[in-house]
Amino acid sequence: MLTFTQEILYTLKRVADETEARSMSKNVKEQFEFLGVKVITRRELTYPIFEKHIPKNSDDLIRRVEELWGLPYRELQYVACDYLFRHRELLMGNHLGFLKKLIKTRAWRDTVDVIATSILGDLAWRLPAVRSKIAVWIRDPNIWIRRSALIFQLQYREKTDWSLLRECCVTCADDEDFYIRNGIGRALCEYARINPSEVKRFVLSNVLSMQIVQEVLKHV
After folding, report:
1. Are 78 and 39 in contact (CB under 8 A)?
2. Nearest to residue 50, comparing CAs of 74, 82, 15, 23?
3. Is 207 or 10 the better-scoring residue by pLDDT?
4. Which of 14, 17, 59, 77 places its Cα 20 to 30 Å from the Cα of 92?
């Protein structure tokens, strides 16, 4: 185990709270084991460790993130997301496969949405050429990959590629999975803050679930 990982694990285990761990596990339908460390405490304890362990390059960053990702406690995946976000500028177009692997592994909305909007989104913002590669994800059999394609532009505001977002939403219009429909709704509601007339025209002229339409129309 890497020294970085050992320090993170030891530090968080010292403040583990069994009662809080049970509560946190229930929030994700008991899919993951928790130490019971809340977000503020977790970051107060781990950020100083981050300062001691600056990755030399992208390989170093990926090695540390992947090791955290492979360990059982859910907080370690949250730490990995924080660390990855802090050094997101090290990621380039050839790291899409790495991000896709993280999204699919130990997957749930809590990690998927962070990676999609803050890390994948940042990569596609810096390197617009990768957006066409992400667009292909909308046909992936994995729901979390499809959700990521829907929401990676969530923070783009007026720079949103509206054509791409429309295409993704139309492709998934018949999808009955809650997280796909929720992703469509989130993306459209966010862009409606910038371009309400276009979003309204889109939802009224395409076959989307009534739930999505009703939610989006509240924002236009």
Report:
1. yes
2. 82
3. 10
4. 77
